[in-house]
Design goal:
The structure holds two protein chains of two kinds.
Chain A lengths: L22 H7 L3 H29 L10 H36 L7 H9 L1 H10 L18 H4 L2 H30 L12 H32 L13 H35 L6 H14 L15 H13 L1 H15 L8 H24 L1 H7 L3 H31 L5 H27 L14 H29 L38
Helix pairs in contact in A: 2-3, 2-4, 2-17, 3-5, 3-7, 3-9, 3-15, 4-7, 5-7, 7-8, 8-9, 8-10, 9-12, 9-13, 9-15, 10-12, 13-15, 13-16, 15-16, 15-17, 16-17
Chain B lengths: L8 H35 L2 H27 L1
Helix pairs in contact in B: 1-2
Classes of the chains: A mainly alpha, B mainly alpha.
């Protein structure tokens, strides 16, 4: 980002600027973007633990062949809810939490454009989460058709499916409201001098992500609405018995589902683009190309959906189109990886925890990207469709991609948010523990998939036993490692640790670092001027 | 180093109106996509969907160009 000169107005940090309700009223009624960002982040971590517990149940069942821990129907519910909760309850709200905290601070805005709607966007999430989790306890159990909710299974499922559909509607409404807020804030509330091409890359990635959300969340809402009417109101959109076409659901779902992957990963790209320059003590290499690459990825994400459907009998021309279009995404993604490496090249690098997570992200996300290219090749994908290779691929993208970036972002900004430095030693242990255990947990899944082990099954042939046992050990270790992260963050939130300076990272140059730590409750009421 | 003065009441009203316009545009995109996808399936055939989205895009372009021309005048 270009140099920024900022003089925050006198009075920041004074008590009269920090008055707000206390106790539960503060959190229920707050319109402050920092409070709402904090709630998003804690909520997402809580859901991460819930979804993670489900992952532990899945891995416990798969620890050895045979059925020993749960019934197959419950296992299917676990894989379904794990996916839905991690995508909609953990990763997306975490990204929105970062946006709530950082977007106004980075563009010099006093708050989000629609502060009350911001509060509402958040408070829609807990009811949706409750609906998803309590669907386990209704007659027939929770949805068990996988997070993709394919008919005809979802047309035939019990009441849990209705709760899931309702939860998705609520989550979608929350996401759309959040996106409208973010776009409006970025377009209308930037500080004087903060032109679009001076915005930090995190803001750019969120601007593009928010547009993606507005375009695709209504499509998912439309798809599940049609499922609902098929289930209860006699329509036959996807019901083959009434002349509908279940494959059409897949087209509609993946028109949402593939951009959703980028909705999850683009904010992570933005965080990495803030961390790497700060710890390389160099400006981001190729800022403009990063912006265009982000936009390119977003546009391409709309024309690749059917690579999730290579085995549904698409015409050859369609297979070729979606294969090549998918491969094309490697170009803007490659630009990004190249620019991050070029930023580090000959930089005065140090390796604090945020940078470790950023480099871990770079290494593992690139690996996940490469396996994505493998999956893009139609004849190969037909062989590995619905195997553990796919599970390995998307966990390298989602966990080692998004989650590692979010961990890095949390360590990067927590000194600013809380005014307390995190425990560096514990942070590094968290990183190495996560890095090693993640690879033990997920790398063997490539071998399992290539050997033909199907996903979403509670039992498997003896030949898959060894790698499954290793994967389960890695998964348990990875899950346990995250408790360390919780401990470090709670210590910071409680102010236990070294006091953070206003700018703890020498190379950080965005507007938020010009403010004191901990950040005052109200900021930029007088807009800064960016030069 | 400099800090811009606090925006006056008029400027704040303009910003609020601008925020509302941006939000309404974005909401209408979401509404078009939501009903568009259902209409496509309900009426059958991709032509409906392409028609709905195409008409919406054209409408936005006409409105955007019209507003731009009016501002220039």
């Amino acid at each position: 980002m270009s140099s920024i000169v900022h003089d925050h107005a006198p009075g920041y940090g004074h008590d009269d600027h920090a008055h707000h309700p206390s106790g539960i009223t503060r959190w229920l009624t707050t319109t402050n973007h920092k409070d709402i960002g904090t709630m998003y982040l804690w909520f997402s971590f809580a859901m991460f633990l819930v979804g993670g517990t489900m992952a532990m149940i899945i891995r416990a069942e798969l620890f050895q062949p045979g059925l020993q821990v749960v019934e197959p129907e419950f296992f299917n519910s676990m894989t379904t809810l794990h996916g839905l909760i991690m995508v909609f309850g953990a990763i997306m709200p975490a990204a929105v939490g970062f946006a709530n905290w950082q977007v106004p601070l980075m563009i010099g805005a006093p708050d989000m454009a629609f502060a009350r709607m911001n509060n509402w966007s958040f408070w829609l999430l807990p009811p949706a989460a409750i609906l998803l989790v309590t669907s386990l306890f209704v007659p027939g159990g929770a949805a068990a058709a996988g997070w993709t909710l394919y008919p005809p299974l979802t047309i035939q499922a019990g009441m849990g499916m209705d709760l899931t559909i309702f939860a998705i509607h609520i989550l979608g409404a929350s996401s759309i409201m959040g996106s409208i807020n973010i776009i409006t804030t970025i377009l209308n509330l930037r500080a004087p001098g903060m032109t679009l091409m001076k915005m930090p890359l995190f803001v750019w990635t969120w601007l593009i992500t928010a547009y993606l959300l507005i375009a695709v969340m209504p499509v998912l809402a439309g798809a599940v609405t049609m499922l609902l009417t098929d289930r209860h109101f006699g329509t036959s959109f996807f019901n083959a018995a009434g002349g509908g076409d279940p494959v059409l659901f897949q087209h509609v779902f993946w028109f949402f589902g593939h951009p959703e992957v980028y909705i999850i990963i683009l904010p992570a790209f933005g965080i990495i683009s803030q961390i790497i320059p700060a710890f390389s003590r160099k400006p981001l290499f190729g800022y403009a190309s990063m912006v265009y690459a982000t936009a390119g990825i977003a546009i391409l994400s709309f024309i690749v959906w059917a690579h999730h459907m290579f085995t549904t009998g698409l015409p050859t021309a369609g297979l070729l189109f979606f294969m090549y279009a998918t491969m094309l995404i490697a170009v803007p993604t490659g630009v990004k990886v190249f620019n991050w490496l070029a930023t580090m090249w000959r930089g005065s690098m140090t390796f604090e925890t945020p940078m470790l997570f950023a480099i871990g992200f770079l290494f593992l996300f690139t690996l996940g990207g490469f396996t994505g290219l493998v999956c893009a090749i139609t004849p190969v994908d037909i062989q590995i469709q619905d195997t553990y290779y796919i599970v390995a691929h998307f966990h390298y993208v989602m966990v080692a991609g998004s989650l590692f970036a979010f961990f890095g972002g949390a360590y990067f900004w927590i000194p600013k948010w809380s005014g307390t430095m995190y425990n560096e030693k514990l942070g590094r242990i968290h990183f190495w523990s996560s890095m090693i255990s993640f690879n033990i947990g997920f790398f063997p899944m490539h071998f399992l998939g290539l050997a033909g082990m199907p996903r979403r099954i509670p039992d498997y042939a003896q030949q898959f036993a060894d790698w499954n046992m290793i994967a389960s050990i890695g998964a348990f270790w990875f899950g346990a490692s995250q408790l360390l992260f919780l401990y470090v963050m709670v210590q910071c939130a409680r102010g236990k640790g070294e006091k953070a300076p206003a700018k703890p990272w020498e190379g950080a140059d965005t507007l938020e670092w010009t403010l004191p730590s901990p950040i005052p409750y109200h900021t930029f009421e007088t807009p800064p001027t960016v030069k | 180093m400099s800090a811009s003065p606090m925006p006056d009441a008029d400027a704040q009203t303009r910003i609020r109106a601008s925020n509302r316009r941006t939000a309404l545009t974005l909401v209408s995109i979401a509404v078009v996509f939501f009903f568009g996808i259902i209409a496509t399936k309900f009426m059958g055939g991709p032509a409906t969907g392409i028609g709905v989205v195409g008409a919406a895009v054209l409408l936005y372009l006409v409105v955007a160009i019209g507003r731009n021309l009016r501002d220039k005048r």
